[in-house]
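Notes to self after the Tuesday call (sharing in case useful).
The group wants a holo model before anyone commits to mutagenesis around the pocket. I volunteered. Ligand is heme C. Logging inputs and output together so the record is complete.
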Amino acid sequence: MSTQTRTALVLALSGCFGMAAQAQSLPNLFPFPNGSGLLETFNTAGGPIDLSGPFFQSLGTNGRSCGTCHRPAQGWSISPNEVKVRFLLTQGRDPIFSSNDGTNCDHNIDTSTLQGRQKASSLLLNKGLIRVTVGVPDDAEFTVMSVVNPYGCSDPATLSMYRRPLPATNLRSLSTVMWDGRESSPQTGTQKITFATNPADLLADLEHQALDATNGHAQGATPLTPQQQQAIAEFEMATATAQAFDYRAGALNQDGATGGPVFLGSHGLPAFFVGINDPLGGNPQGTAFTPVIFNLFDAWTNTHSHHDDRDGGSESRRASIARGQALFNSKPIAITGVAGLNDDLNMASIPGTCGTCHDSPNIGNHSVSAPLNIGVGDVNSSLNVGYLPVFTLQNKTTHEIKTTTDPGRALITGLWKDVGRLKGPVLRGLASRAPYFHNGSADTLDDVLDFYNQRFNIGFTAREKADLVAFLNAL
Ligand code: HEC
Ligand code: HEC
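Result:
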């Protein structure tokens, strides 16, 4: 496809989505295209998805709504391609580029020209990143020795990090809210999510999160009313989002498969409870951990192609997705150097799989709150994080030094052992919301697997990688 045709296509598509966004509602299960098929959102409350409620209203002062950064077409997150189209269509004046956090820094920037605005929002345009500021707790076990931020914003008392919007859907399975869990933490006046208090704790946290998001992202002048907070939380809790159709495999709920958002919304999410599948034996009902996290594509396991797997057709694709699922559930990974696991369990190497950390059945987040540091924010990981600021932290007692591009949970708890720890997110609707990881450092799912392959010496073959990517794209 020529660049011109491509641009025309992108603009035409974004036009359709623009129209959909201006409409009062989105038909239930409206199919949004992505690179490998169609993504749909199922409204478990029934009927169309209301685009006129408080989630989509501008309730602050800069014209933004929740929907500015949580878009149904992008898996309720954002993608750099769509953000670039928004930039072109509005000459960089869409509210998402607001300089409070839609630019790399909020001062010493020139937004008077188009080029200036493009430069000022480069992380948002290229990686879909929003600037997130968190103050260093007074009683932290560490001091911030230095901040090297290429964009300015290097205040060592309030750190500027750059993070991907988490999807505002499939929230029923959350065991902690935000990458660093800060909306589920007594330190911030919010509630830890536990089996005993769920889902009331989650609802309270989401209501608090909506208040904070309006005050922060939307620069709210008056706080949301309790009714608005409640309406937003209820709206978010009612949606289930997943890939529904794969261009090569066909509908993901055909011939015994249970992919797609309807099954997720009517069986997967309602079945969730905190600790439902915990490798450390935390299931409150005493049920043992199973490494079989996903079984959506079991029925496709023995699919045989009539053409000896060389037709590239639906049957070989189905078989590939099923093999990918089996790899997710069973490929051995020797987990080493992960803060939150190896240190807490005092085990140099833990025999695991993808599901040791992504353990919620058919959803893929961690079923109990478990912030982990797998090294995505490390300065010397195999991922390129050269576009991020670098923080040097020093332990007040031991004087040990850590360097990271995102201190994560440590900025909430003040604990040295929490440096770089973040939650494992839900693994549904992935195909619509590249790039991946909290800092957008993996442009594709291939890059995600390359990272894991190197980080844990897994030894994926090319075919295993292709199968896993086919599977992840079908979630
Ligand atoms: C300017 C972009 C932006 C706007 C506007 C915005 N968000 Fe977000 N949202 C983010 C980012 C970035 C994160 C992740 C930040 C983090 O974890 O540090 C996030 C995280 C979340 C999460 C956490 C999901 C999870 O898995 O933990 C929820 C829920 C959410 N937003 C809801 C909302 C609501 C409700 C509104 C409107 C009141 C809103 N957001 C407005 C960017 C935005
Ligand atoms: C040791 C724990 C652990 C293991 C093992 C693990 N993950 Fe993760 N995964 C995480 C954490 C934590 C994150 C979030 C990291 C971040 O963004 O900094 C994550 C993020 C991801 C993401 C990005 C999601 C998004 O929304 O950006 C994908 C995809 C993923 N993992 C897939 C896998 C696959 C496939 C495997 C097996 C090959 C695997 N993970 C193994 C802990 C783990």
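Two things stood out.
Residues 64, 66, 68-70, 101-102, 130, 132, 163, 165-166, 168, 174, 177-180, 206, 209-210, 213-214, 217-218, 232, 236 surround heme C (ligand 1) (CB under 6 Å).
Residues 1-12 have pLDDT under 50 and may be disordered.
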